[in-house]
Amino acid sequence: xxxxxxxxxxxxxxxxxxxxxxxxxxxxxxxxxxxxxxxxxxxxxxxxxxxxxxxxxxxxxxxxxxxxxxxxxxxxxxxxxxxxxxxxxxxxxxxxxxxxxxxxxxxxxxxxxxxxxxxxxxxxxxxxxxxxxxxxxxxxxxxxxxxxxxxxxxxxxxxxxxxxxxxxxxxxxxxxxxxxxxxxxxxxxxxxxxxxxxxxxxxxxxxxxxxxxxxxxxxxxxxxxxxxxxxxxxxxxxxxxxxxxxxxxxxxxxxxxxxxxxxxxxxxxxxxxxxxxxxxxxxxxxxxxxxxxxxxxxxxxxxxxxxxxxxxxxxxxxxxxxxxxxxxxxxxxxxxxxxxxxxxxxxxxxxxxxxxxxxxxxxxxx
Length: 366
Hints:
By secondary structure, the chain is mainly α. The chain folds into two domains: about 55-65 and about 120-225, Tetratricopeptide repeat domain (Serine Threonine Protein Phosphatase 5, Tetratricopeptide repeat), CATH 1.25.40; about 225-365, no CATH class. The chain has helices at about 10-40, 85-95, 115-130, 135-145, 150-160, 165-175, 180-190, 195-210, 210-225, 235-255, 285-290, 300-305, 305-320, 325-340, 345-365.
């Protein structure tokens, strides 16, 4: 018996118990193997996706969509053709070669382009740039002849902090349908050259193709990075208009029609710069404010539930020397009166502490 069951002590009863325990252990191991194999075959559970809100759900009041981002000049992302820029450049080159002999031809006929003339011109410009890589006129001429990402990279190697070239590069990528490339260029340029014009262009881009979360997050970043500029009023007014709409939405959800705020400096404002009626969000905006911004970020209504978020935005704006501060001050006083209705002394204290900053900023701008 000992030989038959190696490792078991002698004795029939003990050997039988040992044999049964070994069989049970083998059965349990086999079950674990089958369970592991079954689990491996099953696909992992998909996480519930949160619908992404588009930034274009918002109504813009102060950031104008000019240039390539204007409604008339904008194409839907799936309509943008990579050949558009090549066609435009070809037309520009061709128009320069039109001579008097072609003046009587049909206007719809595109003039022919002389490739040899283009080649000679490019060689001449390249020779100029070899002598002086900072010849902006030569770079501009090359870009007019053959605009491309590779050429913009060369230009920016010579002018790494040029607002003009960074902006043209990013908008060129967007115009030719390279949305991901445009996004990458914008992220590079606002780091290499944080300038108000670049941030405004980036926000227009995000409004057209980005999510609500990206737009709101970068609008707040823009006020932090370039909000000190005396020309930054559009950023501050847009941020306040957005926050006020969310604040009013929260009040309406609670059934509270008292304390609804007006936005400063909207069209049709009073001489003090304050709108005569409360600024209310559209139904689509209200739904967007109450939805999660992403899988990891809660809704805007959750963030703005803390009145200190709007209070901080007001106070930072009033501490900046920009245009339209009278309207912002009137809106801020109305805000403190509404949220401090149960404590008028606190509201008076907060506005009293802020008034010297408002006066100093207003005087500095003037």
